[in-house]
Each structure stands twice: as structure tokens, then as C-alpha cells.
Design a protein that fits this description.
Elements (H helix, E strand, L loop, with lengths): L2 H4 L2 E2 L5 E5 L2 E6 L2 E6 L4 E5 L3 E6 L4 H22 L2 E8 L4 E5 L2 E5 L6 E4 L4 E6 L3 E6 L2 H12 L11 E4 L15
Antiparallel strand pairs: 1-6, 2-3, 3-4, 5-6, 7-12, 7-13, 8-9, 9-10, 11-12
Length: 179
């Protein structure tokens, strides 16, 4: 039995949910999201909560049960409060600036790197080395932040690069000097 799948998803005020042709659609104050739900699960939409039930006791069905509940919970949370991720730039001369819906990174390459933000994701540059991303779609937000981090991943020797806020970089010891 799925411990996650058993939990109901509470619906905050202002969030509307409907199911059509295997697609769950959630509309809230921060926008609307839709997701094709996994097969073999039944989604019950009540006035105050969403519950997910398996159709049989198959192993694959139990896997989909927890997945379907988590997808529904993420859509409800995203449309009501949204998700936030923070990146930090560490290194001498590393900085970022926002120009409209494009971020311009100076991270040690010969030319600045332009990164257009996808629709539904907004970024706020704090200082010149901290970026706060917000969005309703958790999957799109995580993918965007991961692609940006890949521009210059943290270096294990000096710790320079783009890292998540609160991420601990495991540092390596450099070469032992000559005699």
C-alpha cells in the first residue's frame, strides 16, 4: 500500500479542479496547469479534497497510485502558492543581470551567456550573485534551474560556479606542493 497515495490532497480556497479524458486540470490564483494522469488509478474530486484510489492490487498500479497523488498535489500547490528555487553565483567577477525575460550570465567565459526564461517562470536578481526563480509548474521550474546550473557547475577545488542556495560543495584538496 502506498503511504503517499492514501493521503488526500486538500484544496485551498480559489482552486478549481476538473478531470476530462484522463487529464487533470487545476486552476488557481497563479494560473492553470494540466497533466495527463497515469493509468490504473481513479481520481475522486470532492469539494474540499482530492483522493486517489488504485483500480486493482497490481505492483504497477501501486506505483502509479503514489505518482498520481504527488502530481495532483504539486499542481494544487503550484496554482495556489507557487514554487521557489534560489541559485547563487560564487566566484570573482561572476554576476547575472536581468534584461526583460532574459538572464545574462558572466561566469568566466569570454562572452556573456544569454538565457531566455521559459513562459511561466519568473526570475528576480538579488544583488548580482543571487537569483530567485518562481513558477507554478514544479517540473518546469526544476528543469530550468538545472539547465542554468549546468552553465557553470560548482568546482570541487575552489568552489566557484553556480550552485543551489544551501547546497554544500564537497571540497577536494589540491596538489601537494613541490619540495
Amino acid at each position: 500500500m502506498s503511504r503517499i497515495g492514501k493521503k488526500p490532497v486538500p484544496l485551498p480556497k480559489g482552486v478549481k479542479v476538473k478531470m476530462e479524458d484522463g487529464k487533470l486540470m487545476v486552476t488557481g490564483p497563479l494560473g492553470s496547469l494540466s497533466q495527463v494522469m497515469p493509468p490504473r488509478v481513479k481520481i475522486n474530486i470532492g469539494a474540499q479534497e482530492i483522493t486517489v484510489e488504485p483500480q486493482d492490487d497490481n505492483r504497477l498500479t501501486r506505483c502509479y497510485w503514489g505518482l498520481a497523488r504527488t502530481l495532483a498535489a504539486n499542481m494544487v500547490t503550484g496554482t495556489s502558492t507557487g514554487f521557489t528555487r534560489v541559485l547563487e553565483l560564487v566566484g570573482t567577477g561572476y554576476k547575472v543581470e536581468a534584461k526583460g525575460d532574459t538572464l545574462v550570465f558572466n561566469v568566466g567565459y569570454s562572452n556573456p551567456v544569454n538565457f531566455p526564461l521559459p513562459k511561466g517562470i519568473s526570475a528576480k536578481v538579488e544583488k548580482a550573485n543571487r537569483i530567485e526563480f518562481t513558477g507554478a509548474n514544479k517540473e518546469l521550474l526544476g528543469q530550468t534551474v538545472a539547465v542554468i546550473r549546468r552553465l557553470r557547475p560548482p568546482d570541487p577545488y575552489k568552489g566557484k560556479g553556480i550552485k543551489f542556495a544551501g547546497e554544500v560543495i564537497r571540497r577536494k584538496v589540491g596538489k601537494a606542493g613541490g619540495r
